[in-house]
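forwarding from the other thread:

> can someone predict this with hypoxanthine?

sure thing
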Amino acid sequence: MVLGSGLGRLVERIEDPVSVEFGELPGFPRTGVTGHAGRFVLGRMAGVEVLIQSGRFHVYEGHSPAVVAAPVRTAAELGARDLILTCAAGGVDATLDPGAIVLIDDHLDLMFRSTLAGPARSGEPRFPDMSAPYDRRLAELALEVAQDAGIPLRRGVYAAVAGPSYETAAEIRMLRSLGADVVGMSTVPEVLAARSAGLRCLGLSLVTNKATGLSAAVLSHLEVVETGRVAGRAMSTLVEGIVGRLAGSAHSTAAK
Ligand code: HPA
């Protein structure tokens, strides 16, 4: 499970947590962006063994695609089968207000720095299929949990951009015309690596702001993190509910 900007509070819900800072692990750099703790927490959530990746490496920090993918590849090698990714995002669809949660249905990879570039990894396809990057059954499970908990959840397309500058208003109009509902600077690099390694993916975006040009506000990272903190409660409820249902579903018992 990958926790994005300001969404780190889910870690508090882990029983018997064992925490390892990324900086302590060979081959992992230290994270430096406010709001990204940068550690693995292993433990149990809703009775299910989980590995939480709290914080992530971003392309905009100058990390190589291999570093961005390293935590997900580590989880895959440890035996994870299902990957829940959460992220902060801007609402490109004008009807999305801060606090809304979007179930990622599909994505537009506009980062142009694939985590899969380079020599093919053994056991992985050279040209992995991306016709269904997000697992349909996990998505249905998420929609069920959301409905039962009274949390509005709608499907949408996530546009991944490299950042670190926020988009211009013209870029947001372009993304909308391309079919994007939300925009962010993460998630897709990890999904590419995860799908290549055979992990089933579920992506949830927390809308922390209306995208540029859709409100009079000027975007600031602190505000994004703060909205994540405040509105992150519904996301925590959702993720915990999904993990709980995974235990009882046909999926493997490891949700990571
Ligand atoms: N754009 C890109 N990434 C983001 C945004 C945004 O508006 N909000 C949170 N992450």
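The beta strands are 2-3, 15-21, 39-45, 48-54, 82-91, 101-110, 153-161, 182-184, 200-210. thats all i got for now
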